[in-house]
């Protein structure tokens, strides 16, 4: 069979932000699906959202309620969500209570009742909530084979009547195996809710979806007054082309720092700016953003440790006006500090802003603050999440500076507490050094994946104009320990820096 | 006690007026309140199940009896229909005005309970479904309050 001969499966929109991408484009029309999960995971809300997104007067939806949440209360609560459209009720959407049939009669009667309503209404969508109750009632009264027969007849009939079906039920993970309901289903959306310490994290998994490729893995879900919102692990960038990296160098706004970088930061790179508290990481990152704005390159600053107004005030103290570019759509300051945040949500927010203002530069200040804002459950995956995040953003052509605080030890020089150095294309290390009874600051470019850089260790100062890079520190040994000493007699002269004191990668 | 919005009470009066004007067809319940509740029973039972409708009607009746004691003989049958209005009517102890008030209060409480749970807008939708030919539209009282 040629590709032209294969049937085209129309995909229905879910009405849930992010979910169509997770499903591989939408819900396959006429599919027989299960929305499963623990109580409180958002099953009913998800079902309603899909229903309101698709039901029309010509092709309505029938929502069968069975011994679960009473329909009157379901309506009471669901109408609080923004997607609930009063005008659709009893025209495009009909609620039918099946409780009595389920309680008093057998599976055949339940099937007959559903069939009767479906044939009368010609619905595009049929939802049964909770189907688990129907099955539970039947179990014990009929064999597994009979139960499977009922589910198969139901699936067959609803597909024949061109209805896309959703069975909603409370299940636990162990029940998937050998369960006739899951065997028959074309699609299985699994919602879960995990509590760790004081944080609650909701996730969605497409366990099964016949006929199309979905995005594997657990995707973060958030429920707000808008309803469910999903955050695909692909960050909404499926099918987005990769922008070439390093075609030009971006100025940091500090001429001498650009020199150390041999022309600036390669565009599309991820830079790790590591150093102890007070070393000027944030100021350097601020100068990078300000320089971009000066050259018409919009920027985004994601801050976790101070409020946007404080950040703007601090920038102003160094002579940078961050109010005007915010008004002009050249700068977005994202302040994220909920304690149950996921990396995926953060990235979605950043990606949305990048697309909105066409951002070229991004500062994440800081990774430690970012990690603290995450729910404990997400902190365990922080490295993996950062890897996906940085990859996604740099593929969009965004150049990123992430600051990371390091506690200086005076025997060695760490690059990061997160063991994430491999994520960075470029690493810049700031540190304190004790020289001549003074605590001075030193900067060095440790790594630049895409090109050469200076190997000098330069002294710098934090001034009211920002970072000012000084001269290379010569004549000292053990600078990276932070407690350098003079070279032995005559050595300082011998160690005169040669011209080739620069790496060529 | 559940207070009934004036707009919902107006809706109850309108429903009862429609039922009174329609007269009693052969085989239909005699009293307009019984007929009105019977018509609401159809869409509400589909929504809440027969047991759900009976629960709502029973609660509405309790609230109504507190306001109009002459409704004390009225009962909700197991099938969700009302019994007792004929006894009041033929008992000659209750005047027409009192009986009329009892009907409005009972239907008003049934609609009011529904409005409490699902809002006035959806309640009017159910009324429109039960009386498709009658005008059930009025400005939503909650909207009025906002204005």
Q: Work out the number of β strands of chain A.
A: 26
Structural class of chain B: mainly alpha
Radius of gyration of chain A from CA coordinates? 29 Å
Sheet/helix structural class of chain A: alpha/beta
Amount of helix of chain A? 25-40%
Strand order of the largest sheet of chain A: 5-4-6-7-3-8-9-10-11
Main beta sheet of chain B: strand number and arrangement?
2 strands, antiparallel
Task: Specify the helix fraction band of chain B.
Answer: 55-70%
Distance between the termini of chain A: 51 Å
Biggest chain-to-chain interface with counts = A-B, 17 and 19 residues
Can you walk me through this structure?
The complex is a heterodimer of chains A (505) and B (147). Chain A is α/β, with parallel strands linked by helices and 505 residues long. In chain A, 31% of the residues lie in helices and 28% in strands. Chain A has a 9-stranded mixed beta sheet with strand order 5-4-6-7-3-8-9-10-11, with helices on both faces. Chain A has a 9-stranded mixed beta sheet with strand order 16-15-17-18-14-19-20-22-23, sandwiched between helices. A two-stranded antiparallel sheet of chain A has the order 1-2. In chain A, a hairpin with a 2-residue loop joins strand 10 and strand 11. Chain B has helices spanning 6-22, 32-67, 85-91, 96-118, 120-130, 141-146; strands spanning 75-76, 82-83. The model of chain B is unreliable at 143-147 (pLDDT under 50). Helix content of chain B is 68%, strand content 3%. In chain B, helix 1 (6-22) crosses helix 4 (96-118) and helix 2 packs antiparallel against helix 5 (120-130). Chain B has a two-stranded antiparallel sheet with strand order 1-2. The two termini of chain B are 26 Å apart. At the A-B interface, helix 3 and strand 5 of A face helix 2, helix 4 and helix 5 of B.
